[in-house]
């Protein structure tokens, strides 16, 4: 491919440049970003005061990854590490924070705690990573034009689709593993009922990856897996409370 424009010019003219497409003033965009950052930081500080320094540590790491993802001269989103960065930050860190807030008064947080959290969080890590992967699959030509060298650029279109399918399969596998290890209630296996729906929608996207017409299937797949997992976990918790009441 011959690139006829500089990355800066191409980025401004990109179809995915929401600020330019919707004519949002940069000053207003900065105000929104700053406001959301201050709000989330304030909530994080409050929870840290209540729950302890581990929450602060995870929060700071998440903030750093969040900024590095799209900020600076060499943002992560322009590299092959965009998928794992988004998956780990939103899938693993948020899961850990949710677990920690509920058990912060326990005396120790050893390696076992972090590994258990990882196993439970892996379905979320994988499907969230797939959102970025699916997005990059659709935008690979434009990404190359604006200087982004994503995972899709490095491994190719066909292998990227294989990785996407594998991530969905592994997400279900780790739900089973978490249940077998007694990290999640048996009811969590109910999320496996979404396999036919996820398979159908994934097949539609893989057959014709397109941002406008098929990419929404990747977003629905994420909701099918994570919302159903949450729903059945809650049923399992309620069931346990009723049984041992």
Question: Could you write a compact summary of the structure shown?
Answer:
Helices cover 73% and strands 0% of the residues. With 245 residues, the chain is mainly alpha-helical.
pLDDT average, as an integer? 87
Shape: globular
As residue ranges, the low-confidence spans are 1-10
The fraction of residues assigned to DSSP E strands is under 5%
Work out the number of β strands: 0
Number of helices: 11
- Secondary-structure element order, as H and E? HHHHHHHHHHH
Report helical residue fraction: over 70%
Structural class by helix and strand composition? mainly alpha
Gyration radius, to the nearest Å? 20 Å
Cα-to-Cα separation, first versus last residue: 66 Å
Biggest beta-sheet profile: none
Detailed description of the structure:
With about 240 residues, the protein is an all-alpha fold. It is about 75% helix and about 0% strand. The chain is built from eleven helices and no strands. Helix 6 packs antiparallel against helix 11. The longest helix is centred in the middle third of the chain and has 28 residues. The protein is globular.
């Amino acid at each position: 491919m011959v690139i006829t424009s500089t990355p800066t010019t191409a980025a401004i003219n990109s179809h995915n440049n929401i600020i330019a497409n919707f004519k949002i003033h940069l000053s207003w965009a900065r105000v929104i970003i700053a406001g959301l950052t201050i709000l989330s930081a304030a909530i994080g500080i409050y929870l840290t005061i209540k729950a302890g320094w581990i929450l602060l540590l995870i929060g700071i790491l998440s903030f750093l990854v969040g900024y590095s993802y799209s900020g600076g001269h060499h943002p992560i989103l322009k590299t092959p590490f965009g998928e794992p960065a988004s998956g780990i930050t939103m899938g693993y860190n948020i899961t850990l924070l949710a677990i920690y807030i509920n058990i912060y008064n326990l005396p120790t947080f050893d390696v076992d705690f972090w590994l258990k959290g990882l196993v439970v969080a892996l379905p979320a890590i994988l499907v969230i990573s797939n959102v970025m992967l699916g997005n990059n699959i659709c935008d690979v030509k434009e990404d190359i034009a604006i200087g982004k060298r994503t995972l899709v650029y490095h491994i190719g279109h066909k292998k990227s689709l294989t990785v996407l399918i594998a991530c969905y399969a592994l997400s279900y596998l780790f739900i089973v593993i978490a249940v077998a290890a007694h990290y999640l209630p048996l009811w969590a296996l109910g999320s496996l009922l979404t396999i036919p729906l996820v398979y159908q929608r994934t097949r539609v996207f893989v057959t014709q990856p397109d941002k406008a017409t098929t990419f929404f299937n990747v977003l629905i797949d994420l909701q099918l897996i994570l919302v159903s997992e949450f729903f059945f976990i809650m049923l399992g918790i309620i069931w346990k409370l009723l049984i041992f009441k």
